[in-house]
């Protein structure tokens, strides 16, 4: 650095700075990194190292270089690490290049120092770069870099200057919206939406230096601002203004602003409705339907940003939308009845279907945005639900809208408290029509399949007892549809089928016994058999992955031990459910896979029970099952793996036995009772609990069946009265705690 403080820079020093400025714009990463490090060190030195009395002089000496450096960095700043724009593919992708991240943060730090050294010059450079984008100087890449530069210095400027800069940027964006370049208009609209979402409060405040809040300017000039925009860009601007209106604190101001914002679309809507009232046949005019779609799309955009404030607008157009929806639906049905399914390919029917979808999308958006205010929906809920359900039930399969299922799902989610009595009627309206579509071809309507199961998942989660009490025919079809979904070759459908089945079994276990137990008795074994068949289809399980299957198997085999009290064996009700399921699965495996030995089948079946508390180990067990299925040679060396598997199962059985025994003995200790333990079979023992006075009582009688592979169980009461357990080789004598509770152990080696 030069040691002189004269008004002129040393020639060699100035030449060196010129060289660094020239090197900075060279497209070479290594050189760019060196230059970035230098400028960061240089600008930080100007900010920190200069004594206060020399600061202004140093800034004046370097003003020209610093201004040019600001211009250069604004044009070359690298993109943030989370977004990289690939010009050829027109996509954004994630990247984690350490060098690129470092370069961005170094240049960002330099821009911050440059902003602190001269705020006005930084604003001037940004404004000049914005002006260059007009006319022939537009470049999407340069405009993107300018946005990154503005984001880099966010929060560095004083509030007044930053608000002033933001105002100028927004005004320039509005100018870009009127420009002929399509790409520039799109970038301007998207950027304006981002600013409106994050700085909405700034636009509704009346600053002393301005004639009024910026929101008022937008509302007054909305027609001119959006005159050259496409429909998509037009809706983005309306959505952005909706966020600004949402920032207003006064409800009356919000209603007034909303009315002003939608004045043009509402005027067009009223004109169309008047024409329809005079002559309904105009609804089969392509131009009228196009205008309707434009108005509906604008309403959807505003509803997404406004939320519950939009209820006043819905109130204005609600009944008209329902009437239009009914007419279009009836017209589609009549046209298809006259001309067969080929009528769905004609332009007017396609346009009618698109208009119906926009109406459904608006209702669905409003319902989702009002999730915290269900009272707003109570007045429109009955007529809306009746209209869309009738349409879905009566229309031909190709004309059924999956958006109806999405809308009903949203309504069910939001209006849970007042919805329980309508669950049977909803299932009646959607179950058979949807299943007819599925039965015709399970691959033609995947969107209907997905939306149906999303709705079914919500109904099961919230009202499982009601779902389980629907007529037997409907319940069987519901279970069958879940099984069809599980074996579907599309991953999303298979995954949601497993999720629905898992929710059904979990919620059924929590339902009252008079509802749950008949369901388990009728469908539990069918579900297990179907799942095993799907798993053993080697191609099917890889579509969804092992994890969802492991989770549902854990749930099913836990329920067999804990939740299902009704006998599953119709021919021998005295047989325990675990014994029946164990033997049934073993028989199925032996019948279909005669290459597997009895030891393999026994260990595989036991693994389902012993790993049912650990989805990770159940996942490994399923993989082991597939390995055994693929083995077709009796002398295969993989039989050596059985020893490891058997050891692992024994450890799990010891753990489960110990936990069950601990629960049993804890109960005995708390109630001052005697526990007699004796062996029943090769792998079980039973425990009969009797009161300490020798009298048996139905209320106290207790029997537990516990899988056990250890020699015997020793129960020890520690010094503070807590019950602990230990597995040992020798049977210890009866032990007595300080309160006199007696625990007897009589167990022969297994």
From TrEMBL:
Q: Name one GO cellular component term.
A: cytoplasm
Localization recorded for this chain is: Nucleus
Q: Does the keyword Heme apply?
A: no
Q: Which residues fall in a coiled-coil region?
A: none
Q: Where is the Exportin-1 C-terminal domain?
A: 313-634
Q: Which InterPro entries match?
A: ARM-like (IPR011989), ARM-type_fold (IPR016024), Exp1_repeat_2 (IPR041235), XPO1/5 (IPR045065), XPO1_C_dom (IPR014877)
GO BP, one example? ribosomal large subunit export from nucleus
Name its species: Heterorhabditis bacteriophora (Entomopathogenic nematode worm)
User: Sorted alphabetically, which keywords does the UniProt record give?
Assistant: Nucleus, Protein transport, Transport
* Record protein name field: CRM1_C domain-containing protein
| PANTHER family (UniProt xref) | EXPORTIN 1/5, EXPORTIN-1
